[in-house]
Design a protein that fits this description.
The complex is a heterodimer. Chain A is mainly β. Chain A has three helices and 25 strands. In chain A, the strands form five sheets. Chain A has a 16-stranded antiparallel beta barrel with strand order 1-2-3-8-9-10-11-12-13-18-19-20-21-23-24-25. Chain B is flat, with a radius of gyration of 17 Å. Chain B starts with a helix and ends in a 17-residue tail after the last helix. Classes of the chains: A mainly beta, B mainly alpha. Chains A and B meet through helix 1, strand 1, strand 2, strand 3 and strand 8 of A and helix 1 and helix 2 of B.
Chain lengths: 442, 74
């Protein structure tokens, strides 16, 4: 009897030992650190894989991107979670260069300085010379320290032809109230370096149309910036069906924050057409401040309905010392249909313009020479973004899922409509994009 | 001043959340919350791809996690 009993006992203990890390991982992932995208999906000691591919296509022959992702996550016996991820990104197409459309045809020097490109009268000036591939690799690690504390660390690196970004982050999580509350603290440090073909442009330098004047507008071959982020978050289990998160984060960027490919048009005070000097239209390379501090508040709530459906809502408020503030509302409803699900998605984003955003520079401002900073990049102007999407997923078994989603993204900008000839031009064209993604996890 | 307001909201919000001992569940009541789709980031790959898209097209990033560095996204 004793022998049998002992055997049964040891089997039970072994079972408990096997289950314990899985339970620990499940409860840890409940309160997953917002700063890390590690998620414990499977059992302890096994690998979980996810492959996905994103296709992003903007209307009017603008940006197209294909982005395959490979992600592997291992959950260890003691509750540690390792995630390795690789993202490959191929970009082609055209991007607005910042200049205004014009009643007359326009010619621009390519960012590399090698030749020019033409834009027809009335057309939005877009630079179709950009093409890039990007590889991004990341590794993150999450581990319990004891019953109440957990730490995480992550490394990240991405490389494009002319751009390098590397970063590291780390943080701690403190559980309270029987793990119903978790406090998250995290810090992140990133370093970015840009080395554009044709070198860096001098701030607000005039676009040159021959080798000599192009060289005058150059200011070194590369430049860099550092970004430090700090995050403080509280995650709270509200009840059996509801979990809530509240984050505050602050981000300080320092260094070269300008986009070397963006320009501004100088507009004639009298006509509202392009201001001409020496036979050429005058365009200036943009200049942004060399530091930026952002504050973000983020709130998210997930609620499970009794029929298995899940409501996921979030809101983010961001403000920075460039004068921009933004609101982001995100809503998903996961409609459970047996082993499949449908997930409608709505996202609404609204931002105000940066203090130094100008859709164009007037002749008077240009000749006075007092401007220190200016950008016509619509992404720093007043804009609204609306995303509508639908995702379909099908679980083949507990660990295997196939999913796909289609989303439509519409960005509308607004601002000063100009004067004279400029009034006839569409200074704020919409950006429309189609997003398609397929994924398989196993 | 804005920063002070934010800091006050955070401190008060944290206190409210962490001081509410009525909130929460017993360990055996975590069945629903343990479901994959109830994780705050239930699809990390999709979340990462979305972050990259919106980082490239809008002036805001981060919030849910770190904004971090990124790319020469045009």
């Amino acid at each position: 009897m004793q022998l049998i009993s002992r055997k049964q006992g040891s089997t039970s203990i072994r079972k408990i030992k096997k289950i314990a890390p899985a339970l620990a991982a499940a409860s840890c992932s409940l309160l997953s650190v917002a700063s890390s995208d590690v998620l414990a999906r499977g059992e302890a000691g096994t690998w979980d894989f996810e492959v996905a591919s994103l296709f992003y296509s903007e209307a009017d022959d603008r940006v197209m991107a294909a982005e395959p992702v490979f992600s592997a996550t291992k959950t260890f016996e003691d509750g540690e979670v390792l995630n390795l991820k690789a993202v490959f990104d191929t970009l082609t197409g055209a991007s607005p260069n910042g200049a205004t459309p014009s009643a007359a045809p326009q010619t621009f020097t390519k960012p590399s300085g090698n030749g020019t490109y033409d834009i027809a009268a009335g057309d939005a000036p877009i630079d179709d010379t950009f093409q890039d591939t990007r590889v991004a690799l990341s590794a993150s690690w999450l581990a319990p320290i004891n019953r109440d504390w957990e730490y995480n660390a992550a490394f990240y690196g991405s490389k494009e032809y002319d751009y390098l970004s590397i970063g590291t982050s780390g943080g701690f999580k403190r559980y309270l109230n029987n793990k119903n509350t978790a406090l998250n603290f995290g810090l992140s440090f990133s370093f970015d370096n840009i080395e554009p073909e044709g070198d860096i442009a001098k701030p607000l330098a005039k676009m040159g149309f021959d080798d000599a004047s192009f060289d005058v507008s150059r200011d070194g071959s590369s430049d860099s910036k550092t970004i430090i982020d700090a995050l403080f978050g509280v995650t709270q289990v509200i009840n059996r069906n509801t979990i809530m998160q509240f984050n505050y984060s602050v981000s300080l960027s320092d260094g070269y924050l300008t986009d070397p490919f963006k320009i501004l048009s100088v507009i004639d005070d009298t006509t509202g057409g392009n201001f001409v000097e020496g036979g050429n239209n005058v365009y200036l390379y943009e200049a942004r401040p060399d530091s930026r501090m952002k504050h973000s508040l983020y709130w998210q709530t997930k609620y499970a309905l009794s029929n298995g459906d899940v409501i996921d809502g979030s809101y983010r408020f961001m403000l920075d010392d460039w004068g921009i503030n933004s609101h982001t509302f995100d809503f998903r409803y996961r409609w459970q249909l047996g082993s499949s699900y449908l997930e409608p998605h709505l996202r609404y984003y609204i931002q105000s313009e940066a203090d130094f955003y100008k859709p164009y520079i007037t002749e008077t401002e240009y000749l006075a020479g007092n401007l220190q900073e200016a950008t016509a990049d619509y992404r720093l102007g007043d804009l609204d973004g609306m995303t509508v999407g639908l995702k379909y997923g099908h679980k083949l078994d507990n660990d295997t899922e196939f999913n796909m989603r289609v989303e439509y993204y519409l960005q509308t900008s607004s601002g000063d409509d100009g004067f004279g000839l400029l009034k006839d031009q569409d200074l704020y064209p919409d950006t429309k994009a189609l997003i398609f993604q397929v994924g398989y996890s196993f | 001043m804005k920063f002070l307001k934010i800091a006050t909201i955070i401190v008060l919000g944290s206190l409210v959340l962490s001081a509410c001992s009525d909130l929460g569940v017993k360990p055996w009541e975590r069945d629903v919350l343990a479901r994959q789709e109830m994780q705050l980031i239930h699809d990390p790959v999709e979340a990462g791809l979305d972050d990259h898209i919106y980082f490239s097209k809008e002036a805001s990033s981060g919030g849910r996690g770190f904004g971090g560095g990124g790319c020469g996204c045009n």
